[in-house]
Amino acid sequence: MSFALVFCTQSRTKDVLPTTAIPTGVRCGDVARIRWEGRFYKAKILFIGVKELCELKSASVTSEGNLIESEFDTTLGFSDDDNDEICEPQPSSSGEKEIVTRLIRIEELCGVRAENKKRRDAEFASQNQRIAHLEQILKEALRRLPVVQAQGWLILLRYLDKI
User: Fold this and answer.
1) What average pLDDT does the segment 64-82 reach?
2) Residue-range domain boundaries for the chain
3) Nearest C-alpha neighbor of 16 from the set 53, 63, 71
4) CB atoms within 10 A of CB 56
5) Higher per-residue confidence, 90 vs 32
6) What is the pLDDT of residues 90-133, one digit of tens each?
7) pTM here?
8) 3-state SS of 61-94?
9) Are 76 and 85 a contacting pair, CB within 8 Å?
10) Dihedral sign, Cα of residue 40, residue 30, residue 104, residue 88
């Protein structure tokens, strides 16, 4: 199933929608009324392709609703419809088709890996917060321990308290 990266002109936000929400015959760069979640919005179609690639490209949308293409961006998007030419690459030979297919797959994988990295970074930050909280609890427990323990243990506890 194909998806489209759209920029809503009124709310100045971007979103990834299934192509079923877009009227037929609309091409990349066109402004059209799209139906999303039971409401109609006026939106500019920026890119059509697989969902992961649309989400990856959504980071390159400016506040004016323009899609910034990098120098090395090899995807032109594609559609499930054979007769529809919405942003479709037009490779001439089977070798070029295979290369374009592989490049699209690489970009999809890059998007998935970027999402996985974001998730790992969020988990890492959460774990760091938990560790800091546990460290505070342990320091408070050490502070509350009675001082009547053996002298060797007291020195060790005071040393650990300063860490």
Assistant:
1) 59
2) 3-90
3) 53
4) 22
5) 32
6) 556 778 888 888 888 888 888 888 888 999 999 999 999 999 99
7) 0.42
8) ECCCCCECCCCCCCCCCCCCCCCCCCCCCCCCCH
9) no
10) positive
